[in-house]
Write a structure and sequence with these properties.
Helix content is about 45%, strand content about 10%. With about 90 residues, it is mainly alpha-helical.
Length: about 90
């Protein structure tokens, strides 16, 4: 077993085998971004995460929030969400 797999195995709790948190590297790999970019976002306070024992970790909910927060909506959808009038063809 590789050291990364061993570390991943340690992050799995006995509570139904569900992972309670993911490492920066795991999340970056899943989102297809660099671990450095994700760690920088954490340090700058732009991404919600858990910081324990000098390690940055993510709960599944935080990963979903990261995706929601970085999802771009078309301008018309955003205007309607804000309650503004949308002019066709603009």
């Amino acid at each position: 077993m590789s050291s990364q797999n061993a570390q991943d195995a340690r992050s799995v709790e006995a509570m139904g085998g569900e992972e309670l948190y993911f490492s920066v590297e795991q999340v970056a790999r899943r989102l297809q971004v660099s671990a450095r970019w994700l760690a920088d976002q954490c340090r700058e306070g732009r991404v919600e995460h858990v910081h324990l024992a000098r390690k940055r970790k993510f709960t599944p909910e935080q990963v979903q929030k990261l995706l929601r927060d970085h999802t771009i909506q078309p301008a018309e959808v955003e205007q309607r969400r804000l309650g503004g009038n949308v002019r066709p063809g603009v």
